[in-house]
Amino acid sequence: MITVHSPDHVLRAARTELAGGRLVPPFECPERVAFVLDRIAAVGLGAVVTPEAQGLDPVLRVHDAGFVRFLETAWDEWVASGAAGEAIPIIWPARRMSQDRIPRSITGRLGHYALAAETSISQGTWAAARAAADVAVGAADRVLGGERAVFGLCRPPGHHAARDMFGGYCFLNNAAIAAQRLRDRGLSRVAILDVDFHHGNGTQDIFYDRDDVVYLSLHGDPMDAFPYFLGHADEIGVGAGEGFNANFPLPRGTLWPRWSAALAEAIGRARRLGAEVLVISLGVDTFEGDPISFFKLTSDDFLRMGEAIGRAGLPTVFLMEGGYAVAEIGLNAVNVLMGFESV
Amino acid sequence: MITVHSPDHVLRAARTELAGGRLVPPFECPERVAFVLDRIAAVGLGAVVTPEAQGLDPVLRVHDAGFVRFLETAWDEWVASGAAGEAIPIIWPARRMSQDRIPRSITGRLGHYALAAETSISQGTWAAARAAADVAVGAADRVLGGERAVFGLCRPPGHHAARDMFGGYCFLNNAAIAAQRLRDRGLSRVAILDVDFHHGNGTQDIFYDRDDVVYLSLHGDPMDAFPYFLGHADEIGVGAGEGFNANFPLPRGTLWPRWSAALAEAIGRARRLGAEVLVISLGVDTFEGDPISFFKLTSDDFLRMGEAIGRAGLPTVFLMEGGYAVAEIGLNAVNVLMGFESV
């Protein structure tokens, strides 16, 4: 399997994450990719290629133009405002506050375009986010070109990024950008299967009223887990999208038998709805050793996960999302890809 | 003029405020009250008395019961969750996310009930917030008892606290609690005049659909100033409250002539609408030396402010809100009270 990868991911190297009331080194760190690349080389998964620069067109197909402009300039404006730390929102348009007027102040705009405060915008974040979007498009294009499956080693991840909001370590929604690319290049129905521990609120948001991109997610129950405010089972889509969004929230301590039963249901749904291609939001923070999650999958379970996805028999774009047990992220992510290839 | 004051304000002594992407010592600090008390003594303003404990009934007249329970237990739950720092939200119900289901997780509930992240919940915060509400009720009761004016030296402040959200250094909305007390004890129309530099989004929120409590606010234009997402001139109230909310957003560098013209307009509005009593949200962060605001009032201007309020000829409850030029806060706040008494 070919891996698409951009070395520019290292430009996303924030110093601070807000966690437990303190500023700590971010769980989502550049070392994550190094471990995955090492494992790809160790098992001989296949070639690692660099994507072409795509410009902003594929990004603007799923993201708000004002939001994209904000991401592009936020760091420079933040620094110009005299702030000493990285850009972290301090206020947002909460219940019954105005969502229509976008403040002039960079502090106000930061809150307008954020859905979470753990994720700071740092120098280089925009360049890295653009490179990750290029990776996603590059992976989608290779599947359009006839590959059975391609791995887009995106970083920063994307699935929490909504049409006009960043957060949860995500800035541009790589999976949404890839799915839209597949649609724009001729496929009529795409299914995004999100196996990251966290609900992909951003992906759901982007496609919630559409029937051409199905969103299926297995994740920690939002009553107990980030992102808390989206991912319930009764969120089934709206308008034309009704029935094309399916959430499988699962409890603390979930093991492979329960997790894989939900996976089978999700894959069955994708097939019944006529998906022609799968985009996998591949987070491996379902791992038992993950420091910020609460499922209990083993490294061997990731092989079985790949096999189950492979048996769906659809062209597949794998895109890296979360996974914070850094030393095991390569083993676990590549196990999914090897399991897929074994079918 | 009598001052109502609770020594329990010192229980609000957070160690951290999120500002400029760093955790810094809070601008809203216990020393603020010490400077005001010193000035009250120095000028011989009048007696300083301690309020009676009121229980939660006056609080629950304007705040959501679930929110109040949350504030009561948040610190203990946060500590029990293993967090090492003070309680700071990291995610909230942003645009198109669910506002109906309240998460089980303390991290999720913290986001549900917050409108800002600069304000951490610390040990003792709840006790101090309750004491400030007692101060507000105690001041209102003395005006009901016949005093021309009383000063409630509330801390923490209150005007950013909405029916079900904390933030902006505020937890319980002292001015709203006092206004409701005045209504419940027989006055038919109350005007809250908010002269703090920041818009009192919480107070506006609580009374936005009511015609019995008028809200009038002079503040930094929310396009440029906290709270950014409320406080525009076209927010005039809704339903029965239409015409009973008036905002006067003012630009960077505003001096006394422009500020006092807006004050005259606000006071005229209160009188025309038949207010029987004034509640003044007395922030003195309009001062030229304030570290986080951008108006340019001088210490002498605060004397004139008090005179203008006194000339309204209404019974008046002054309640302390913001003001972060700590060394000058006593001079400036007491100048307003002395100006009032000189009329």
Architecture per CATH nomenclature, i.e. the level-2 architecture of chain A: 3-Layer(aba) Sandwich
User: Under CATH, the topology of chain A is which?
Assistant: Arginase, Chain A
End-to-end Cα distance of chain A:
13 Å
Q: What's the number of domains of chain A?
A: 1
Number of helices of chain A: 10
Class of secondary structure makeup of chain A: alpha/beta
Low-pLDDT stretches of chain A are none
Oligomer state of the chains in this structure: homodimer
Instruction: Compute the CA-based radius of gyration of chain A.
Output: 18 Å
Q: Give the largest interface pair and sizes.
A: A-B, 59 and 59 residues
Mean pLDDT of chain A: 98
- Biggest sheet overview of chain A: 8 strands, parallel
Strand order of the largest sheet of chain A: 4-1-5-10-9-6-7-8
How much β-strand is present in the residues of chain A? 5-15%
Number of strands of chain A: 10
Give the C-level CATH assignment of chain A.
Alpha Beta
- CATH homology-level superfamily of chain A: Histone deacetylase domain
Helix percentage range of chain A:
25-40%
Outline of chain A, from the CA principal axes? Answer: globular
| N-to-C series of helices and strands of chain A | EEEHEHHHHEHEHEEHEHEH
Protein described:
2 copies of one chain form a homodimer. By secondary structure, chain A is of the alpha/beta class. Chain A has one domain: Histone deacetylase domain (Arginase, Chain A), CATH 3.40.800. Chain A contains 10 helices and 10 strands. Chain A has helices at residues 31-43, 57-60, 65-80, 106-112, 125-144, 174-184, 201-207, 256-272, 299-310, 326-341; strands at residues 2-4, 17-19, 22-24, 48-49, 149-152, 190-194, 213-220, 245-250, 277-282, 316-320. An 8-stranded parallel beta sheet of chain A has the order 4-1-5-10-9-6-7-8, with helices on both faces. Chain A has a two-stranded antiparallel ribbon with strand order 2-3. In chain A, helix 7 (201-207) links the parallel strand 6 (190-194) and strand 7 (213-220). The radius of gyration of chain A is 18 Å and the shape is globular. In chain A, 61% of the residues are buried. At the A-B interface, helix 4 of A face helix 4 of B.
